[in-house]
Amino acid sequence: MAHLKLNNNPISKISQDIFDKTQNSLGFVPNMYKKMGQNPALLDAYIYSYNSFRANSGFNSVEQEVVFLSVAYENNCEYCTAAHSFIADKMSKVPVEVTNAIRDGKQIPDAKLAVLSKLTRSLTSNRGNVSQAEIDEFLAAGYEEVHVLGIIAGIAVKTISNYSNHNTNPELDSAFAGRVWKK
Question: How far apart are CA 7 and CA 135, in angstroms?
């Protein structure tokens, strides 16, 4: 797989502002952000969409991580799978059995989260074209139609970062090293 070799272009004000805010909130700037920040349109779009998904998707923090991990797994993104495994385990309090099941492509022990992951993976792999039976199964699990659209928002966010990572190959940050994942 080809990887971009990014030169040392000056960082735009947009990217630098995002780096500064991230440094203040997380204590570090993830390597993925540094790579994406070479193009401020990409990093700005990602950060805006990520924050909007977190605030407006209709999912709680556990469900959000199930969506993000399911997309990263389906897109074979090693960086995002490791990072969101860490976030899920340490920040969002997702049971490790759930994150490990997603990472291993196995059955998730929680039935509702399993249906969420299943539809997310299907929407991702089928580029949004899923059967009515899949939607009906999702709705029968207690979700609403608005949640299908929330999944699509999550897929969009993670696709931005997954595709960027596939092409820029950021080094995994030490914060996420305990949850390394290889496709």
Answer: 45
All structural domains of the chain: 60-179 (1.20.1290.10)
Residue range 138-165: average pLDDT?
98
| Rounded Cα distance, 107 and 115, in Å | 10
Contact 9, 38 (CB under 8 A): yes
Q: What is the pLDDT of residue 4?
A: 45
The answer, as to whether pTM is greater than 0.85, is yes
Residue 137 one-letter amino acid: E
Rg (CA), the chain: 16
* pLDDT tens digits, 11-64: 889 999 999 999 999 999 999 999 999 999 999 999 999 999 999 999 999 999
